[in-house]
Amino acid sequence: MTGSSTQGIKTVLHPVSDLAKAKAVYAALLGVAPQADSPYYVGFESEGQHIGLVPGGGPQGMTSPVAYWHVSDIEAKLAEVTAAGATVKEAAHDVGGGRLVATVIDPDGNVLGLIQDR
């Protein structure tokens, strides 16, 4: 395979119905307080992983957890995975601070996330 390199899954986002209750459970599970804590997103950093809680599935309408692979070139990786049979669900877009995110759907309907940091 050629194209952009993938650095592994470092981020997993979970849709939650009750942010306060979910925050307490994940804080207990991970043994750390959240590093990002707002009404629209709570994020934890633990053991090199980022675990995010998204109330109501957020604007992307998540219905199940989504794992995000960190990549060096999101557009190249999108081209590579779509050529291999994936379908773009959410095109690459900036979510702040130069971080680009995108999601694709694999042939079985699973949602896969991509992240490119600046």
TrEMBL record:
Coiled coil: none annotated. Residues 8-117 form the VOC domain. Pfam families: Glyoxalase. Gene3D superfamilies: 2,3-Dihydroxybiphenyl 1,2-Dioxygenase, domain 1. This is VOC family protein. It comes from Microtetraspora fusca. The lineage of its organism: Bacteria, Bacillati, Actinomycetota, Actinomycetes, Streptosporangiales.
